[in-house]
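User: Hi! I'm a student and our assignment asks us to look at how structure tokens line up with a sequence. Could you show me two examples?

Assistant: Happy to help. In each example below, the sequence comes first and the structure tokens follow. Example one:
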Amino acid sequence: MSISALLVDDEEHNLTNLKLLLQQYSPQVSVCGMATNAELARTMIINHQPELLFLDIQMPGETGFDLLRSLPNPNFEVIFVTAYDQYALQAMRFAAVDYLLKPVNINELQLAVGRAIRQRDLKQGHQQLKNLINLISNQSGKEGQRIALSTLKETRFVKINDILRCESSNNYTTFYLTDGDVLLVSKPIYEYEELLKDFGFIRCHQSHLVNNGFIKSWKKDHGDFLLLTNGTEVPVSRGKREQVKALLRIQ
């Protein structure tokens, strides 16, 4: 199944290289145009109505994020193609949108294209894009900020302060929410530790990440445990004990 795509990058050799990679390794992508700046891209989006945007973030003048913010109702999938940028990566991981780091890895390109086609068919990706635009526009602030959690059946957008705790099982992470819902996500817990550490989450054990806002007490009964407000006891490992005590300001 084919998908039409617009390529946006301020460097022409990057556009040419990406187009050649797509022709050779992802022939289901039909390139309908290439743009070297946000203004031209905006016009081409209106004229060509692409289903997929390969979008560079750092461009002179308007950035890729500026371009997205300027569109009243973006109705296409986006794969960001960017050099390393911690802020941008953080936002994209929160929104669970796809990105490729330069130089582009062929296998990652093929996987991203496959996901974009599935998202188009499921019509789920647009909400992820809206979530990303909210993040980069600082519209929600930390209290209302949401994270996209992709399960086998859906992508859920969950307020961070509605997450009680996370529990690891190999390369999967289970999210326990305040309303009793349980979500299994196929990503390792260390990725979420990195994303949530600035929101009061504490890694108290190799397998456990806890929202500090729901810690009721520290129990010392045949080991160390954090008692949460819903009655759950979460173990504190020996290796994490002093670090957790410092974060909780326990003497």
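Example two works the same way, sequence first and then tokens:
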Amino acid sequence: MCILCIDKKINSVSQLPNNSLRRTLLKSVGLLSVGGFISSAGTVIAQSANPPKSENILNPEQALTRLMAGNATYIKSKTLQINVDETRGALARGQNPYACILSCADSRISPELAFNEERGDLFVARVAGNFVNTDILASLEYGTAVLGAPLIMVLGHTSCGAIDASIKAYTQNASFPGHIQALTTALAPAVREASKKAKGKDLLNAATVENVRLNVEKLKESNPILSERVKKGNLKIVGAIYDLPSGRVSLI
């Protein structure tokens, strides 16, 4: 169904006086799903009735505390023994993750393992260099506004190949095949800023941190969904770095 048709249907249904009747009719036109619907103003409204994982109903601070506690367990090698049969039925009917993670696509990092979580707990968006583009932004908007996650973490990592390639492109005019060059261009602002601040420090580490910071700010300022949720205190957006040798996640 096109957006114009959806808007027309929502506008007509929204005039009905009975909330129950409105909800029934919204379902009938396909606007309600497990998690939420789109209002006439274009805002995604979360629905949390009967969530599949009630333990994931947290406020932003609780979500961050749980995430970091999970990492503390992970670095001690005391990870979960997961029985997928226990949650398969519940998760088949929906999801309510308590955190969204914007992670690098690096094969050495698995957010679910790094935070000692299982299926249904984390809504993970991954791209080499962990930066925000239109698709990533839309995914995170869905994870927070529709699925109700109160936390987004932008998770960079040490020895990032995408950042290293961007440094080579910036400092040595290196070129890369296919669409890899576009990726290095997207990461260039972080390299540029880090080169001003590094002052003898390792540029790779400095650019990795700067890239996380820039993308945290980009998400915080993203209108209309994320910025409004941040202002209302319904959403917290943080940045962190995953250390490959230790597995430790450090907030920045």
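Here is something you could point out in your write-up. The two ends are 43 Å apart (CA to CA).
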